[in-house]
Amino acid sequence: MNAKTPFVVFVLAASVAVPSPVFAAVKAGAPCAKVGKVQNSGNFKFTCLKSGKKSTWSKGVAIEKPVPMPSESRDPVPMPSESRDPVPMPSESRETASKFQLTTSDSFANLNTCRIKSSLSNLSETVGFPRSKTGIPSIGKVKGVTLFVEFTDLKDDGNPIRAWKTQQVPTAMKYYEIASYGKYDFKVELVEKVFLINKSVLSYNLDTHHDAPAKPNANPFGLVLDAMNAADPEVDFSQYDYVNVVTPSTTLIGFEGAVGMNSIYDGKLFQRATFGPIREYVDSPRKYNWLVHESGHLLGLMHPYNTSGAGFYSGYVIPTWDLMGASLTENSEFLSWNKFLLGWLDSSQVNCLDGGVKSNSTHLIAPLTENAVGVKATIVKLSDTQALVLENRRKSALNDLKRDQEGVVAYVVDGAIENGKGAVSFLYEKLTVTYETRLIGTLKPGESIRHKNILVKVLSSAIAGDYVSVSIE
Predict the structure, then answer these.
(1) How many angstroms separate the CA atoms of 160 and 170, rounded?
(2) Residues 182, 234: one domain?
(3) Which of 237, 330, 345, 360 has the greatest CB tally within 10 Å of its CB?
(4) Is the domain of 241 the same as that of 356?
(5) Which residue has the higher pLDDT, 84 or 113?
(6) Whether residue 154 is found in the same domain as residue 286
(7) How far is CA 41 from CA 24, 25, 374, in A?
């Protein structure tokens, strides 16, 4: 990505529970010496932030008094009866982090309340329920077949089978096992033979630049059918749920990815397939997840962020979370909402709140990747087509994060917005950046965000997860 938009990096400083030296009074907006330095003055905490070419003190944040926690007890601290909200407590490590009384599950809404709908009709990819009927199964064992083809003017060189056998297939199978908590057994079988399609590669009109729109007469569907017809005498398609068609590396196919279809082979109806040359990903470790991204489309997942027009390369508009948003991301794990949509999260892993009902609740949100008992998402229904989602991202097999990049992620999903137009939009207090300047925006203990009548506050970060309060006013 060649984004040249200037950006500001906000350094988040962790507060440490040690005696503080006496400093001169700090004033918001006044010059400060060291970016990232945190200093208390009176009853407020100030952070030194970079602003243009200057460094100035931030707007003061009120210092809340901690509720003392008995050292002999491991139970959550009961909240004072006169207080509606839990009081955050500073902690220097997750091992000693404060714990809070959690709201009981019988206070939450039925999970169906949070299954927002899509207002878009006849689309194969949405963020709303129900998931498209043409999508491949998302639970249990699913098996696809990969066909390798060549053309009269484009011959195989041995690389496609090697790349899929050693790179694409192992990556996809491992990814889905981890991301689904073992609920999705994603299989990919390779037919290790190259089938000849007795046509020119140009006959499908796919020869556009990779980032350009497809030609009006582009025919990826024809390519998939020709490949299946060539392989049909030797392949029993009734064993499979989807098809991958792989061509040799070429610039004569720039438009590639996933395609819908409606064809029956060996008595089996096929409605989704992937297709394209290996040019985009062969021997590129950051693109070993090409199949994961494209099979996400087969599952009915969309490009969730606003990647239309000039905004595609304007830095912050493309968040780092979820490879459906950016396949080169270092944090490839599907959003918890996508996991909810696919059926990988059940009622024991999701707390559902009705945004139209006033309430105050406290949640312990476990790290998203870990395959352990715990809540992976708190969802607040905003309307029939909108929901606010909270999840916890930490360093894991699917998230390459530094400690100061970890935290609670907040975003809004909107079932009325199309693929690539921003169906998922993030909420944040501060911005940080990672590879290719994509937005992170995690919330740390003591930080909060407001969306309409909802206030979200992170209370502490413990080993088991982050304690979060949600106030619906």
Answers:
(1) 14
(2) yes
(3) 345
(4) no
(5) 113
(6) yes
(7) 8, 6, 38
